[in-house]
Amino acid sequence: MSTGLRLGEYADTPLYNIKAVVQATSISPSTLRAWERRYNIARPQRSDSGYRLYSERDVTIIRWLKNQVDVGMSISQAVTWLGNLLAEAGAMELATLPISGSGAPLYDASGEFPTLHREEVRDFDTIQKELIQALTNYDEDAAEIAIAEAFSIYPVEHVGDKLFVPLLQEIGERRKRGDLTITAEHFARNYLSQRLGTLLRSTPNGANGVQIWVGTVCTGLSDAGAPLLSIYLRRSGYRVSYLGQNLSADEDAVKDLLHEAKRYQPAMILLSANTRTSAEKIAQITAHLNQHKPRPAIVAFAGPIYGRNPELRAATIGVYVGTYAKEVVENIDGLLAERHRPDKKHVKKERGQK
User: Fold this and answer.
1) Which of 158, 153, 157 is nearest to 76 (CA)?
2) Domain ranges of the chain
């Protein structure tokens, strides 16, 4: 007997408004609208008052698509798979959607998976241009649509590394060239900061019991690294406390950080830098932290600036864990696994060592 979601068992009567669908699927309204607009994944009807109404079957399909995206499939691939399943069944009410554990693959790793919508998938450069245009025009609605589209097509880690980080760098370059006003720069950076904050708050903390503290020393407008790393690590199962931006390198402030770390015992304190100034301040913080023995946590640092400037990496006492999402998370996984292995003593990391 086949296992999975039999769509015929779910009513197609339109009953649920968009708020109920968002609560049931954990998809933001903007992402849901982007999926509907580009992929026609649901056909909500309108109430007498003009509100969208979704059926139980619609909600089931949306939740199934989100599950495929959560395990690494792009939304275009998930929609194509859904279309093939419906075509094979002959009618929607006869279709069965495979679920995790049913024995059906979540995607075809051989690369032969059909991609009927591949021509519709736009690259990050195109989305970035639209997003910059929206932000320079102070158009939050257009910016939200662009961001929602990126999240609907690509994994969160790719959106962070290939859209948010380059976008912030481009905003800075435009401001230096005089192509962007001070007011527009502040609007754009603060909008992106708020958007990252919303994403961080909506990302559940991991349940594996290993706690990591993440922070940075930037002034608030130039670095998305720390909140992005917090999001990535939460998605990888860690319990992350985001300490925020503008951490102080003052010795008293570092003593307070050390005191709190001894009290709450995080496995790691991770500091992120994207500029030379931030990296130099982080070097001061790690120097202060390493004056006290034994340290209550691994002191680590990450960020693109260290990859471009090895001398900054060498000047920082602590464990360098990388530049971008996948590398940082994999290095932290290996480091913490080694630290907690019962048959190994933790090996002290020297200055600037990976």
Assistant:
1) 153
2) 5-100, 124-199, 204-339
Burial 242-277 (b: 16+ CB within 10 A, else e): bbebebebeeeebeebbebbeeeebbbbbbbbbbee
One-character DSSP codes across 157-203: HHHIIIIIHHHHHHHHHHHHHTSS-HHHHHHHHHHHHHHHHHHHHHS
* Position 222 confidence tier, pLDDT thresholds 50, 70, 90: low
C-alpha to C-alpha distances, 292 to 35, 70, 297, nearest whole angstrom: 52, 42, 11
Which superfamily does 204-339 belong to?
Answer: Cobalamin-binding domain (3.40.50.280)
Q: Mean pLDDT throughout 53-65?
A: 88
**CATH of region 124-199:** 1.10.1240.10
Helix (H) or strand (E) holding 25: helix 18-25
| Of 123, 146, 124, 122, the residue nearest 134 (C-alpha) | 146
Mean pLDDT of the chain: 80
Where on the phi/psi map is residue 244: left (φ > 0), alpha (ψ -120 to 50), or beta? left
Tell which residue, 140, 57, 130, has the closest CA to residue 95.
57
Map residue 117 onto helix, strand or coil: coil
The residue that leads in pLDDT, 339 or 139, is 139
Q: Which two tokens stand for residue 250?
A: 């003052």
Bond before 155 cis per omega within 30 degrees? no
Cα 86 to chain center, whole Å?
31
Who's near 285: CB < 8 A, 6+ residues apart?
217, 247, 249, 254, 257, 271
Contact assessment for residue 136 and residue 188, using Cβ atoms and an 8 Å cutoff: yes
pLDDT digits (tens, 9 = 90+) for 151-209: 767 777 888 888 888 898 899 889 999 999 999 999 998 888 888 888 888 788 877 67
Dihedral (C-alpha) 243, 246, 249, 252: value to the nearest 10 degrees? -70
Cα separation, 59 vs 67, whole angstroms: 12
| CA–CA distance, 273 with 215 (Å, rounded to integer) | 9
Phi, psi torsion values for 290, nearest 5 degrees: -80, -5
Mean per-residue pLDDT, 286-312: 86
**In the CATH scheme, what architecture does the domain 5-100 have?**
Orthogonal Bundle (1.10)
